[in-house]
Amino acid sequence: MNIAKSGYRVFSANSSVACTELAKKITERLGVELGKSVVFQESNRETRVDVKESVRGQTIFIIQTIPRDVNTAIMELLVMAYALKTSCAKNIIGVIPYFPYSKQCKMRKRGSIVSKLLASMLAKAGLTHIITMDLHQKEIQGFFSFPVDNLRASPFLIQFIQEEIPDYRNAIIVAKSPSAAKRAQSYAERLRLGLAVIHGEAQCSESDMADGRHSPPCVRNTTGHTGLELPLMMAKEKPPITVVGDVGGRIAIIVDDIIDDVGDFVAAAEILKERGAYKIYIMATHGLLSADAPRLIEESAIDEVVVTNTVPHEVQKLQCPKIKTVDVSMILAEAIRRIHNGESMAYLFRNITVDD
């Protein structure tokens, strides 16, 4: 394709190796050259962006992966979007495979809904559209004042299961908590496999989930105006951990959208091993793998962790050979092509349920 006549450019929003490699894979599939720009940190840690070519009147796609330094990556994206906006770009579309702060999408205690704040910042910087993948909560799309295409990685992970796991017909899809059951059910139905759910696993403490509805003190004040007599609410108690479903003599495949703090996954793997599963895989879209995750995975009963390249994790792979990567640049490139040509995006969501 002649980039001079294509009417769009693709830029990489940071200079990290992982982001540049993903951007190159996407541009190679599109048949265009990567836009010329420089993104760097000055000595005082301020982000600076220099766009080295004209973008006037063109549609610009900014590819930004999120490394460990999340806040720097966000500033790189904001500064580049604003630089392109002030350079008279027609449309600025962010390709953000993993949307940061997506876990902070609900009010907890007296905190804030940070993903809503980030959506407003991106719009103010000049973005007019977002391409992302497997948002932690699909309701996050409603935080934006412009279109959001939330792509799915499940077709690539399902293909990996079918092609790379020997005797996958003897597998069972596992949800590590009841809240993940819908996603697991979607995988199980498409692979025509059984489903198991781990129940009773501690997710987060009840105090972390407090949102103000339990504010009145438990002890009633007998002096002064008594007010309305409300019944006292009993605290929840986690039941003993159980596995709903037979995993004995089966390959257990745990599916989720994010694997970050692997403590829950390691505990789930131990339970599945005790119940007779002879191999345990974890399939997740975003492999954040923070802190000691590689070491914990290496020492655990988990046989393989399969994640996509939405998040850089080359260092973690060097520390733990159990981590495997699935390339999703194909669907990102196709989304860019379809948006630029004004084609329907429905083809990218075929055979995919809302709960996936």
TrEMBL record:
UniProt xrefs under SMART domains? Pribosyltran_N (SM01400)
Annotated Ribose-phosphate pyrophosphokinase N-terminal domain residues = 18-126
Would you tell me the Gene Ontology cellular component terms?
cytoplasm; ribose phosphate diphosphokinase complex
Entry keyword NADP: no
Q: Please, one GO biological process term?
A: purine nucleotide biosynthetic process
List where this protein forms a coiled coil: none
Give the matching InterPro entries: Pribosyltran_N, PRTase-like, PRTase_dom, Rib-P_diPkinase
SUPFAM superfamilies linked: PRTase-like (SSF53271)
Which GO MF terms does the UniProt record name? ATP binding; magnesium ion binding; ribose phosphate diphosphokinase activity
Could you name the domain of life of the organism this protein comes from?
Answer: Eukaryota
Q: Carries keyword Hydrolase?
A: no
Q: Which family does it belong to?
A: Belongs to the ribose-phosphate pyrophosphokinase family.
Q: Which PANTHER family match?
A: PHOSPHORIBOSYL PYROPHOSPHATE SYNTHASE-ASSOCIATED PROTEIN 1, RIBOSE-PHOSPHATE DIPHOSPHOKINASE FAMILY MEMBER
Q: Quote the NCBIfam families the UniProt record gives.
A: ribP_PPkin (TIGR01251)
This protein is called: Ribose-phosphate pyrophosphokinase N-terminal domain-containing protein
